[in-house]
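Appendix B. Chain record.
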Amino acid sequence: MSLGQRVVLLVLTSVGWMSAAYAQRPERRDAPVPRQRGVTERQALAFAEKHYAELAEVLRVLRRSQPQRYREAMRQLTRTVRQLEAIHRRDPRRYELELAVWKAEMKVKLLAARLGMSPETALERQLEEAVRQQLLARLALQRYLCERLEARLRELQQEVQRLERTLDQEVQRRVRRLKGAVHRARSVRRSSRARRTHAAGASRSRRTTANANVPKRTKTQGEER
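Structure tokens predicted for this chain:
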């Protein structure tokens, strides 16, 4: 494993991507990577390759050398991918901002791990700039969330104002709707009773007709005596 890969592995361990207790269990090379609600291992690796190539390379090394740690790292990665995909379905703009925050945070952790292994002035400057970009990314996300909340608040305020203006009309409209529903329910019940009464009458009529058509039995001489 190269120095860069060891650094990224250190980053993953430091942010909880590797569970020490989990890694101490006996390794099973044939155990599958858990699937996170529709996110496959291939999708998670493709995500890492696209957005954090060095992470993808470390995962490939782990898959060959430390399967147990690889499975734990993939569990965390697939969870992240699943959460981001859920955000993307609801709000593509927020997805882009959340992704930018994740990438910025990973870069900060990577530089911090490298600085811990090899203190250099150049790395310190890079870390400072990375932290700045991380905070700017988070600030952009927070601003967007505030805009969404402000828009929702305006909608609620408009709804309150509309209801205040039309309260009496709204009361009458809803009462009419409720009365209509009650009337329809009564009509349904009356129609149902009428159908049952008609069916019962028709059934009695058929039985009466059937009985009338049955020929009477003639008494024999013995029975007459």
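Further analysis of this model is presented in Appendix C.
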